[in-house]
């Protein structure tokens, strides 16, 4: 079947390319984009206005406000239990044959750590100045509390899947916790559109373009290769995805961090000045001489917060789908909350900071060109430190980061497809898998401006739904946290007993959480 799919897409590519320019072979050799997805002007205007409203104000205030509220109500959980996160990580590989906490963390990190960690940081610095990094850090700090709440709820309301694994996430805790099936369905649809289909096209596009620019590999050929690599992984199900993520994500993150440390080591004398530049720029001290302090600070705050939120996904409702699949150790929902909180820290405060160090230590002159406002800035900055091979390294990093994002995004979609389809899930999942492979090929050879904008709108809607849900269910998360904390202080290994929580009566799957 898969070979037939490959042949179909190859024939479609040849036919469409020839129709556009009557020269398909030369188009393929050059690897150019020959498909352009555009929306009607009216729909484009509506989508743009919706994105402007959601991402320009509503979501920023809601995400930050929720994060601050959760931080206060847990008395700074991300600071008080910072060391505990790493302690849990040491025992997170135990799973009793299911998906371990470490595999669930690796899957969520696979989705979080994407091209945004390379290009998004560059965009934040270009438009918001070095001070944007400071506000990315602050966003991640409050986002850690949000991640704890949503991941703890995902664990509490998870359901047994019958194959020694679990399923859960916002759709399940919205229906089971709030009794709002229609809202859960709307969330699932938005997630499938954004993460399952559209974002996978965007990630495939990033891979194809990076490989074409760095190694002259035609985009259509890269699309076929990517389909061939992704297919056996996603057809293997969530366990297969978790195993791949467990192997690839730590390796790719480690290699990137080692390179960043080499760059810092080569420029160690500039490190104090770089840190001071970030802090001073965040509060306008760097720009004071220019008389545009207010505007500069607002740009630093806006770009830092936006890029931070896009990168770590705290509150978006995506990572809880991975968190729910884990067999936790200790046997308590809050344990996975701590593990996923660590994911936000690693994504933004570690990996994004590594990219920022590479760019800022390269000097301000690199940011003078209008075209150097994305991945090009990161490539040029690294090349200035280590030579021309730095650009190729970034291309390979994009390949790894985007590839793992594709399989993780797929897993989020599969979980929600199963939720929507119920007993017809096997057929629905098969159709979904073929659709994902199709979108990978489309993304490799197409211009995706309209798809990207529509995906942003879908993600914005799912984020609002999720944030409202976790705010309404936050008393449950706080009660679970207090239970975990009390047992920990008593010198016990925390164990979850659903019968001790009146608000969870008849709402917890007894197969997932049997009475203790």
Automatic annotation (TrEMBL):
Q: Supply the alphabetized keyword list.
A: Cell inner membrane, Cell membrane, Membrane, Symport, Transmembrane, Transmembrane helix, Transport
Can you name a GO cellular component term? Answer: plasma membrane
Q: Which domain of life is it from?
A: Bacteria
Q: Which Pfam families match?
A: Na_Ala_symp
- Record bears the keyword Metal-binding: no
GO MF terms here are: amino acid:sodium symporter activity
Membrane-crossing residues? 52-72, 118-138, 182-202, 214-235, 247-268, 338-362, 389-410, 431-455, 461-481
Chief place of localization: membrane
* Topology with respect to the bilayer: Multi-pass membrane protein
Cleaved signal peptide residues: none
Subcellular location, record wording? Cell inner membrane; Cell membrane
State the similarity comment.
Belongs to the alanine or glycine:cation symporter (AGCS) (TC 2.A.25) family.
The molecule here is called Amino-acid carrier protein AlsT
Identify the species of origin: Vreelandella boliviensis LC1
């Amino acid at each position: 079947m898969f070979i037939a799919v490959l042949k179909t897409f190859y024939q479609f590519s040849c036919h469409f390319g020839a129709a556009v320019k009557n020269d398909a072979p030369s188009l393929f050799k050059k690897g150019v984009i020959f498909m352009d997805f555009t929306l009607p002007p009216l729909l484009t205007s509506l989508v743009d206005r919706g994105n402007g409203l959601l991402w320009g104000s509503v979501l920023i205030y809601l995400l930050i406000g929720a994060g601050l509220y959760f931080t206060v109500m847990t008395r700074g959980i991300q600071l008080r239990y910072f060391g505990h996160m790493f302690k849990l990580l040491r025992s997170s590989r135990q799973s009793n044959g299911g998906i371990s906490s470490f595999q669930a963390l690796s899957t969520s990190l696979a989705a979080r750590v994407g091209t945004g960690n390379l290009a998004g940081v560059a965009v934040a610095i270009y438009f918001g100045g070095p001070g944007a990094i400071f506000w990315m850090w602050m966003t991640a700090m409050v986002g850690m509390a949000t991640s704890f709440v949503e991941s703890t709820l995902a664990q509490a309301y998870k359901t047994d899947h019958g194959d020694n694994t679990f399923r859960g996430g916002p759709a399940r805790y919205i229906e089971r916790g709030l009794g709002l099936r229609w809202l859960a369905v709307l969330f699932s649809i938005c997630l499938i559109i954004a993460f399952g289909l559209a974002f996978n096209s965007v990630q495939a596009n990033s891979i194809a373009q990076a490989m074409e620019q760095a190694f002259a590999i035609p985009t259509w050929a890269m699309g076929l290769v990517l389909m061939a690599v992704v297919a056996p992984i996603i057809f293997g199900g969530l366990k297969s995805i978790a195993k791949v993520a467990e192997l690839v994500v730590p390796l790719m993150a480690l290699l990137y961090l080692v390179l960043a440390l080499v760059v810092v080591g080569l420029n160690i004398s500039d490190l104090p000045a770089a840190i001071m530049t970030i802090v001073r720029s965040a509060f306008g001290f760097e720009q004071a001489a220019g008389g545009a302090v207010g505007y500069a600070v607002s740009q630093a705050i806006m770009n830092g917060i936006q890029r931070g939120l896009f990168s770590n996904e705290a509150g978006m409702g995506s990572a809880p789908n991975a968190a729910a699949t884990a067999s936790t150790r200790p046997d308590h929902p809050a344990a996975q909350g701590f593990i996923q909180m660590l994911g936000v820290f690693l994504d933004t405060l570690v990996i994004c900071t590594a990219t920022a160090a590479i760019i800022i230590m390269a000097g301000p002159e690199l940011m003078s060109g209008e075209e150097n406002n994305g991945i090009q800035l990161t490539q040029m900055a690294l090349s200035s430190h280590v030579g021309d091979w730095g650009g190729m390294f970034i291309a390979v990093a994009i390949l790894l980061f985007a590839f793992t994002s594709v399989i993780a995004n797929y897993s989020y979609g599969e979980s929600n497809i199963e939720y929507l389809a119920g007993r017809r899930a096997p057929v629905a999942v098969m159709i979904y898998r073929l659709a994902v492979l199709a979108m990978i090929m489309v993304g490799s050879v197409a211009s995706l401006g309209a798809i990207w904008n529509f995906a942003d709108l879908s993600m914005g809607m799912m984020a609002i739904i999720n944030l409202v849900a976790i705010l309404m269910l936050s008393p449950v998360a706080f009660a679970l946290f207090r239970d975990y904390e009390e047992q920990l202080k008593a010198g016990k290994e925390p164990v979850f007993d659903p019968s001790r929580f009146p608000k969870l009566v008849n709402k917890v799957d007894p197969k997932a959480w049997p009475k203790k």
